[in-house]
Backbone:
């Protein structure tokens, strides 16, 4: 997508010491200025010329001369030599956001440098900086020298950038609506996009049939037109015995909503808590209501339900927010010196952030739920205040582990639509797109993608998509031409797009979804989103199908302890009371079945699965031991040149693999020609990996970036570690950044 250095794009770097000469030749330079490309509906707000975008390598400063502009969509730097781009080096470029573009929603923090001191910029400024530093949410760092820019232009561009990236916004003022209005007649849907959107009753019925959940669950339209609850989608699935009027009783709260059904009949459900009440009479009514609801999903000995209260017995959103705030600082590096200064204490900083531990806890919780459903044949009910944060995260991970369909690209996109978009995850608030409340900004969806990356990294052949796909998906959170990640609920989207309004004269706006990848990438670039190692599940003929179970054949034979036919005395009554008390907002002790016995079952299930060969089309569990949870290097380190392994790591292996695929295809074509048979069109291997020696471990985001070969470390620590060769050997031995 975007590149982190101008060296990559063929832009010529100039030493800042020669700026006086550049400034005097301004007339000659402006003839080379690059035209600003605007999207439909995009408007230029302010600009400044004679700006230098530069980096610091050791003590030398280098930069490239150009214009800095701010529109209602992005901040863009237009270098005077950008026309000299090497087309061979920019094949994986984003068609919407250029390498020197920052969407306004992607800006994290803005800093100014005053007399060599770095300060955070916000509000109205009395004094304007000589240098502007922008930290982005995709972890890019841009530095602009304003020393040679006219004073009026500096004031205009700095004030404009601060205002348009930090001032609170109204929803209707987002660029999303400007773009949708301007491109209304030019919006083309990708015919290859078969993602299930779950915005019709038919979609939910299809999913029920696919998972064999239609025997016990039903799709309902009681919320059509959002008459019952604005938080829920228009259509969803509930247990068959549940009367539809129950859904309306407390506006969708306290209702078990179906997520997914396992091959053995167990199901994953979620429920939002009832509003807290102080009145004893209302509390009694709520308790009676929940007791009746609970009986529809808990009918021993045929159906047993285990409740997982994610609000009180798991992570808090505050923990996630705090951990990520510390974690991201490890990668927002201003210069090479800062990189090597922090490198010596990398492990202690990484551990103190607790981000990797939070990932491990999420994966562990998902495995525990998988064990209950797979081995103990129990329904699992996830509880959360609004069932729209951790419920989305855990339910998605469980399905990813248990359902191979979710590991295909279409299946994964449909999973996100079902559990996150239609599940009411508040993307608008959690990504802080409106800049109205920083406390609400919590990277829950990014945490999910990081957990998915752990699985993709550990079991590559099981996934049809690549880590590059996950990386560009995380980047798409901040591109406001797609509706997918810019609303808090389906109701909010439909209302603001004119689908639920009273004005029947105006045509509803038709927004793009992020799943139309052709909007961002050319076909050749899209090949890097598809995993060449993935092997589709072979289709069996009718004779082979007889006598076979639906899915997950290998794991059904795991030597696990049989689930008990009759539980401990009082178990069901206590479990019911626990559910009711939690939904009523009462905090109590841990679940009665969260005991040592549960931990023993989990350990036996986990160890037994990992002791057998992996069936990539069956149950899939991650390793969660400390060293197995790694940093998602491609996303977090891609803009740091010092973190690259030039011509090495997995990209070199992939390059050779794709060369072999091309060779096999070529031989197949020759064989087919010899037999005079009609050649079916073959999937073309990506030509972006032609020469692995020219690539880095962080390809395709860090192709031939500058590379600082001389580390700058504190003298005391440097002497203690030995010479440079010694340190390099130790680094190779302990940390392979390509596989972190």
Residues:
């Amino acid at each position: 997508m975007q590149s982190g250095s101008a060296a990559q794009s063929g832009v010529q770097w100039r030493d800042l010491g020669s700026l006086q000469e550049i400034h005097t030749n301004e007339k000659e330079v402006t003839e080379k200025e690059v035209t600003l490309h605007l999207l439909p509906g995009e408007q230029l707000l302010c600009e400044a010329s004679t700006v230098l975008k530069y980096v610091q390598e050791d003590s030398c400063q280098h930069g490239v001369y150009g214009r800095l502009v701010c529109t209602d969509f992005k901040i863009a730097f237009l270098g005077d030599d950008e026309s000299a781009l090497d087309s061979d080096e920019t094949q994986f470029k984003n068609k919407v956001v250029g390498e020197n573009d920052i969407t306004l929603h992607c800006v994290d923090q803005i800093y100014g440098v005053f007399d060599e001191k770095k300060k955070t910029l916000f509000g109205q400024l009395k004094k304007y900086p000589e240098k502007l530093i922008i930290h982005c949410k995709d972890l890019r760092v841009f530095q602009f020298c304003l020393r040679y820019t006219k004073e009026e232009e500096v004031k205009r561009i700095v004030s404009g950038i601060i205002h348009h990236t930090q001032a609170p916004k109204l929803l209707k003022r987002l660029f999303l609506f400007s773009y949708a209005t301007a491109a209304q007649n030019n919006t083309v849907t990708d015919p290859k996009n078969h993602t299930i959107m779950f915005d019709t009753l038919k979609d939910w019925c299809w999913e029920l049939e696919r998972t064999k959940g239609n025997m016990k669950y039903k799709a309902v339209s009681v919320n059509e037109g959002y008459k019952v609850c604005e938080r829920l989608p228009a259509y969803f699935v509930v247990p068959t015995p549940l009367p539809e009027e129950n859904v309306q009783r407390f506006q969708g709260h306290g209702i078990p909503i179906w997520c997914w059904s396992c091959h053995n009949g167990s199901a994953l459900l979620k429920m939002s808590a009832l509003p807290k009440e102080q009145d004893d009479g209302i509390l009694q009514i709520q308790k009676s209501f929940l007791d009746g609801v609970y009986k529809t999903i808990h009918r021993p000995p045929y159906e047993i339900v285990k409740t997982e209260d994610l609000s009180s017995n798991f992570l808090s959103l505050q923990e996630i927010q705090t951990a990520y705030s510390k974690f991201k600082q490890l990668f927002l590096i201003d210069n090479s010196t800062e990189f090597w200064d922090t490198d010596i204490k990398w492990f202690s900083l990484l551990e103190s952030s607790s981000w990797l531990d939070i990932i491990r806890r999420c994966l562990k919780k998902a495995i525990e739920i998988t064990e209950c459903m797979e081995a103990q044949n129990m329904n699992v009910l996830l509880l959360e205040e609004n069932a729209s944060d951790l419920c989305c995260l855990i339910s998605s991970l469980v399905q990813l582990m248990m359902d191979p369909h979710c590991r295909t690209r279409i299946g994964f996109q449909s999973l996100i639509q079902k559990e996150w978009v239609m599940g009411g995850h508040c993307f608008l608030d959690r990504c802080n797109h409106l800049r109205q409340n920083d406390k609400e900004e919590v990277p829950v969806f990014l945490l999910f993608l990081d957990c998915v990356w752990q699985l993709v990294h550990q079991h590559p052949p099981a996934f049809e998509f690549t880590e590059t796909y996950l990386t560009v998906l995380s980047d798409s959170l901040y591109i406001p031409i797609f509706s997918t990640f810019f609303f808090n609920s389906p109701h909010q989207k439909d209302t603001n797009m004119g689908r639920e309004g009273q004005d029947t004269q105006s045509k509803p706006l038709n927004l793009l979804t992020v799943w139309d990848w052709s909007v961002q990438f050319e076909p050749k670039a899209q090949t890097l989103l598809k995993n060449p190692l993935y092997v589709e599940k072979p289709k069996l003929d009718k004779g082979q199908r007889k006598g076979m179970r639906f899915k997950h054949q290998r794991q059904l034979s795991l030597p696990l302890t049989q689930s008990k036919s009759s539980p401990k005395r009082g178990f069901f009554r206590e479990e019911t009371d626990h559910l009711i008390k939690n939904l009523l907002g009462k905090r109590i002790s841990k679940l009665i079945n969260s005991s040592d016995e549960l931990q023993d079952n989990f350990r036996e299930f986990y160890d037994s699965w990992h002791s057998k060969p992996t069936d990539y089309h069956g149950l899939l569990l991650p390793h969660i031991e400390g060293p197995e949870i790694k940093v998602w290097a491609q996303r977090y380190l891609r803009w740091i040149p010092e973190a690259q392994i030039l011509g090495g790591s997995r990209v070199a292996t992939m390059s050779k693999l794709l060369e072999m695929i091309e060779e096999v295809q070529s031989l197949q074509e020759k064989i087919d020609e010899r037999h005079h048979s009609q050649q079916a069109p073959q999937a073309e291997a990506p030509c972006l990996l032609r020469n692995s020696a020219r690539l880095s471990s962080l390809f395709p985001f860090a192709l031939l970036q500058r590379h600082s070969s001389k580390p700058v470390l504190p003298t005391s620590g440097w002497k203690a570690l030995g010479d440079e060769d010694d340190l390099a050997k130790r680094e190779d031995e302990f940390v392979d950044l390509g596989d972190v």
